[in-house]
């Protein structure tokens, strides 16, 4: 059985003091849940203080991005080595990075390669836009994003995939559990074709896009969905705790 996985992407939210308060508000209760892997991904400025708070915790730490070179004259960027010094996970290929910062499939691929080389576990985001979904192009889009992101990667060990339909991110319009499960099953078949059945069955694939405490159970009940990449709801301690708790109960029953 794949270990369920819930990650909170805080995006460009929380000051350092707010990040500390948020961790303190949910750390104790989250630590009581042992059969779900729990990850928080604060902004870069809060990674070091949050890491200190999580020293004796089961909650793990992730970054929201990295640059694909190890060092150099790249003002404002954060290298894989810097991230790996603090984190175990890193979110890559998020639709907001693709849309607002013009990250191409080639750039995402370079970042995934660099992350794996640094010993990080990438949370690779893929997903289609609304017009692509309505045109019936979902499978073609996610297959192409997957192919480009994993180009030249012989061993994707440690990689996690997050299927995040762009039309559902931050809109309050989530996919249905059935829709998400169907697409994630397609993604898993693609992994099997690119690698092998064992790799596909062991790889955790998440759903992301307007996941809340209200709809989390709908996704967690689906066999192919191994967890969630949570956005806005991860900024509310009680909401995030509820999503993790529901995941633990539902997946444990399966």
Topology:
Elements: E1 5-9, H1 16-31, E2 37-41, H2 47-53, E3 60-63, H3 80-84, E4 89-92, H4 95-100, H5 105-117, E5 121-126, H6 130-134, H7 138-149, E6 160-163, H8 177-194, H9 197-202, E7 205-208, H10 216-220, E8 227-230, H11 237-253
Parallel strand pairs: 1-2, 1-8, 2-3, 3-4, 4-5, 5-6, 6-7, 7-8
Helix pairs in contact: 1-11, 7-8
Describe the structure in brief:
With 254 residues, the chain is α/β, with parallel strands linked by helices.
Structure report:
The chain is α/β, with parallel strands linked by helices. It has one domain: Aldolase class I (TIM Barrel), CATH 3.20.20. 43% of the residues lie in helices and 14% in strands. The protein is built from 11 helices and 8 strands. It has helices at residues 16-31, 47-53, 80-84, 95-100, 105-117, 130-134, 138-149, 177-194, 197-202, 216-220, 237-253, and strands at residues 5-9, 37-41, 60-63, 89-92, 121-126, 160-163, 205-208, 227-230. It has an 8-stranded parallel β-barrel, surrounded by 5 helices. β7, α10 and β8 form a beta-alpha-beta unit. α1 (16-31) packs parallel to α11. It is globular and about 45 Å long. The mean pLDDT is 96.
Count every beta strand, where a strand is a DSSP E run of 2 or more residues. Answer: 8
What is the helix/strand order? Answer: EHEHEHEHHEHHEHHEHEH
Low-pLDDT windows of residues: none
- Could you give the distance between the termini? 9 Å
What is the overall pLDDT average?
Answer: 96
Bin the strand percentage: 5-15%
Radius of gyration: 17 Å
